[in-house]
């Protein structure tokens, strides 16, 4: 009796929540929309579950255009969730270090939260030591996005859009921005961004997923190859000095495959770990190879291709065991790594860095592809 009842209940709940589920035909992807929760002011937040023809799953919510889950196969074909995050809206609305989030308007740091553009001075919220970080107090990770499901022959996608009003978080220009997460049948999660503005502004979007290809424990045994001969050294508030330094002969060098943890003890920053912007050898604008990370126990591999010139490699140094995530896991130091493809930190103060200025009439475009496989 109890069993019958619970089956009845489960089917009631799922049929109430499913909006555009396709019959889960074998060999075809599907998009499912369901309710995720409500913001304190009563606005509905939706969850989109993308499943590709091979069974890989990406879950995305309209709050923050956040990727809440990403299930990829290990070498035996067993799916595992390889990103950190929560299983409820409340925790995503609380304090957390940008798990799975879309970051904007400007990813990473702007020194002292101040900049000058076309002779005008702008002041931003200072939310990270003396600097402004990841778009300010209410960045793109804390706004509600409109969502539109999109299906193609060999992919399923959700396109998020947002209109950021002139002056939001101190940034000039009405900005129309879209971020589309496309899950292809080749096990790629492709993230495409577009934006345009009606006043000259600055923009540097990125995705702040925390990956753990083993699905558990720390990420120090993951092996990484990063196609960057140079990086941008920083001061003790993590603002670049402006120098493009060579990685050769230092613990920063991942040009050949190396365990992430193999030289982490030689770093001197506090809390210790990688939190550095790499200058990708592929250059600016063209889509090209950035990195490969392989996890030997599960056999999972992620490759990253991007149009961006830089990549912030961050080893979850600030995770300190104070957050409990999905599946009841306590997130400790180095339990996830971020590979944020974007422009360099504090670019607006460094004329020698690729520009993040966006003018009216120009179209901002970025594509970053996370390609998953296992062997
Ligand atoms: C980025 C920064 C880090 C940290 C995280 C969020 O990766 O570079 O210093 O702020 O975001 O905790």
Any overview of this molecule?
This protein is mainly β and 375 residues long. The chain has one domain (2-374): Distorted Sandwich (Beta-galactosidase, Chain A, domain 5). It is 6% helix and 39% strand. It contains two helices and 29 strands. It has helices spanning 2-17, 89-93; strands spanning 30-38, 44-51, 57-61, 66-73, 79-81, 101-103, 109-110, 114-117, 120-123, 132-133, 146-152, 155-164, 175-184, 188-197, 201-202, 206-208, 223-226, 230-232, 245-246, 258-259, 275-279, 288-294, 300-306, 310-314, 323-324, 330-331, 338-342, 357-358, 364-374. The strands form eight sheets. Strands 11-12-13-14-29-23-22-17-20 form a nine-stranded antiparallel beta sheet, with no helix packed on it. The protein has a five-stranded antiparallel beta sheet with strand order 1-2-3-4-5, with no helix packed on it. A five-stranded antiparallel beta sheet has the order 19-18-21-24-27, with no helix packed on it. Strand 8 (114-117) and strand 9 (120-123) form a beta hairpin. It is globular and about 55 Å long. The chain starts with a helix and ends with a strand. Residues 1-24 have low confidence and may be disordered. Alpha-D-galactopyranose binds at residues 97-98, 108, 133, 238, 275, 312, 314, 318, 338, 340.
Spatial gap, N to C terminus: 45 Å
Major β-sheet annotation? 9 strands, antiparallel
Q: Find the count of extended strands (DSSP E, 2+ residues).
A: 29
- Strand percentage: 35-45%
Helical proportion, percent range:
under 10%
Oligomer: single chain
Cofactors and ligands: alpha-D-galactopyranose
Low-confidence stretches: 1-24
**Which CATH top level class fits?**
Mainly Beta
Number of domains: 1
Rounded to an integer, what's the Rg over CA atoms?
20 Å
Backbone shape: globular
CATH topology tier name: Beta-galactosidase, Chain A, domain 5
